[in-house]
Every structure is written in structure tokens, then in C-alpha cells.
Amino acid sequence: MRKTIKVLSLLISIVVIGTHYVFAGEVSPIDTGSTSWMLISTALVLLMIPGLAMFYGGLVRTKNVIGTMMHTYVSLAIIGVLWVICGYSLTFGKNIMGGIIGWNSDYFFLKGIDDMITDGIPEYVIAMFQGKFAIITPALISGALAERVYFKGYTMFIALWFLFIYCPLCHWVWATDGWLHNIGALGVIDLAGGMVIHVSAGTSALVVAIYLGVRKGYPNTVVNPNNLVMTIMGAGLLWVGWFGFNAGSTLQSGLETARALTMTQISAASGALTWLFIEAVVFRKATSLGFVSGILAGLVVITPAAGVVQPVGAIILGSLSSIACYYALQLKAKFKYDDSLDCFGIHGVGSGLGVILLSFFIRDSWMKEAAAASSTGIWTVWNQLAVQLVGIIATILLAAIGTLIICIVVEKTLGFRIDVEKEVEGLDKSLHGEHGYGLIRAD
User: Fold this and answer.
1) What Cα–Cα distance (Å) separates residue 135 from each residue in 352, 398, 416?
2) Is the pLDDT of residue 443 over 70?
3) DSSP character string of 90-151
4) Looking at residue 6, what is its pLDDT?
5) Residues 200-216: what's their mean pLDDT?
6) DSSP structure string for 164-219
7) Alpha-carbon dihedral angle through residues 409, 414, 415, 418, given to the nearest 10 degrees
8) Domain ranges, ordered by start, for the chain
9) Which pLDDT value is given to residue 107?
10) Which residue among 105, 173, 204, 387 sits deepest, i.e. has the most Cβ atoms within 10 Å of its Cβ?
11) Summary mean pLDDT of the chain
């Protein structure tokens, strides 16, 4: 009897285990390695928010440090909520309005992705990873309007900018049916947001800076950073976070991830070193602000290209970006616009350069894949360059025109440019009732 029971128990176990594996095959299994890396990448990109806040906060005057850092941090709340409510749907939903924007009502409040698994990764993780990109992009623009806007006007600005510029642009480039995603053989190349994030933010920053006008006393009054130590620490956090930014955008944990991470490191180092050489020639000294500017120049230029270039290309791009960004910063004095913290000069120029020049450094395996996918069986550097140019022109036009309209709307409703008395008093005291450094008197 006991032997019979044992045999029956064994048969039942075999049936149960077999049934489990049969039905498990019907559901996409979770790739724990890729999922773990994407969770880490999401956290790394989130780390860039305090990094950016510290970077920007250290560069302004003492009386504006809290207000400037709040411009970065508030994006976590505003865009963080909007992304869940509708941003994810507008970005990754199916084409509507002729492909201008996406739409999927099941994605509103993320209600339709509870059980979704994409390429072995829970869709929640992908949604949160992409959400961090959406958060940091409008925060970058705050560097161009530092020290001279109402907080309420700024919050309205970034909300409208996210809905009417970021979401459509992100859909064009990263949604599977986006028109820039499908242009040419394999679409426009923009791994982690050279166009979607940095060119769009840089272009908008220039428009905002010109629209608002200069700060009181600029350029005759020298604006000294209140805390370069904080800026340097912020740059370090940005460099670390950028590994999640670029390598996480491969949406896997494998060869492509390793390539993107490596190119990110190489380009950042190359950019920093080149800026030091420039300052050695021009000033006969090395500055910390120049060094961290070089880091950012190297990081932004490799953002679109990290998935397709090789180490030599990463070194060249990082170096060229530092040279271009250094001279772009001189344009402020020539044309007298007040891009306070150089969002256009670094992010717009550096990443724009990467979007275009990556065409000349694409690895052979990618080019062969593009040739196989093309109708002619031939795909050259010049074919891809044309695609990249179409992408960057579309990005600039959308960002420039859309930003100008949003600036006008904000100014006519809540008010955008702060009045002179509050500007002189400083954002911290006049708008937030606080001081960044305790009892230290605001300058």
C-alpha cells in the first residue's frame, strides 16, 4: 500500500511539474539579468537629478541657490505625475494625428501594463526608466533662465513643454511607429537622447534666454559661482548617472550594454582632457569649472552615439565636442544673450555635434545591417548623415517654435519674467522665504 502511495505521489509530482513548464512556456519569462540592470540604470538616471541640482546650484549667486535647485527638483514631482497620467501613453502609444503623437488609452495611469513583459523586462521598469529621461530634460532648460523667473511660471512652462514638445519628439524617435524611428534603413540614430533630450533642451534654452532677456546688470556685472565645490560634486554624480543613461538605453544586459558604457567613459574622459589643454593654451592654468564643462561636453556628444561608435570614435567625438562647446560659450558675449548656465552652449551644441558626426564613426557591423535593410542593398555614411540631419532639423524646429509659443502663454497667464525688485532681492528670499546657507547674508 505504501509503495502504491509513493508511486502515485511521484506520478502526480511529475504531472504537476510538467504542467508548470508547459504553461510557463506560454508567458514571456523575466530575464533577471536584464531586469536587474534596468533597475540599476533607473536609479542611476534618478541620481542625475540631484547631480544636476548641485551642478546648477553651485554656479549661481548665494541668494538664488535654493531657487535654482528647486527648478531641478520640482521636475521630479510635476513630470513624475504627468508621465504616469498621460506621458507614457502620448510617447509610446500608437500613431495618431498623422504620427505627430502617440495614443493608447490603456496606458493612461499605466493601467494597461500591470502584467506586461517586454524582452524579458517588466514594462513597469521600462516605463520608470523612460520616465526619468522625461524628468531631467525640462530640468536642463532651467540653466538658461536661472535667477530671473517666477517659480509658478516655471512650473507651468515645464509642464507645457513636456506635453507639447518632449512627448511628440520622443514618440517620433523612440516609438516603434515613430516617423524618425523608421526613416532610412534603420531609422535615426539616437541611443539615449542626443536629439530627444539635449538638442531639444539646448534649443529651447536659447529661445527662453532670448525671450526673457538678460539678468539685471548682465554682462557688466560679474556673476561668481557661490560654491564650485558643490558644482564639482554635481558633475561627478552626473558622470556616474550617465552610465545608466546611455548603457541602460540598450534595454538589455549584454554586449551592446558593455559597448555603450565603455564609449561613455572614454568620451567623458576625452572631453575633460581636451578642455584642460584648451585652458592651458589660452589661460596657462587649469580651472575646475573648465574641467567639469569638458566632462559634460564629452558626455552629451556620446549620448546619441554610444551604441554605434568604437573607442577611437568616442575619443575623437569627446575632443571635438569640448572644442566646439568652448567656442560656443564665447557666443554669449558676442551676441549678448544670457544663457545663464550654458545649457545651449554645452547640451545643444555638444549633443548636436554628436548626432551629426556619429555618421562618420559607425562600426562596420551596423553599417552592414543597415545595407541589408535598405531597398538598394547599399547604405553609406552619407545616407545616414542625411537621416541624422533630417532628425536634428525636425528637433530644432519643434523645440524652437513650440518653446516660443509656450513662453508667450506662460507670460500672459501666470507671468514668467520676475520683477526687478524680487530679482535683486534673490529668488530664495522673495519666492521661497529661505536662505541656502542658513544665516549667511544673501549677496
Assistant:
1) 20, 19, 21
2) no
3) HHHSEEEGGGTEEE-GGGGGGTT-TT-EETTEEHHHHHHHHHHHHHHHHHHHGGGSTTSB-H
4) 53
5) 97
6) IIIHHHHHHHHSTT-TTTSSTTT----SS-IIIIIIHHHHHHHHHHHHH-PPTTTT
7) -150
8) 32-432
9) 94
10) 204
11) 92
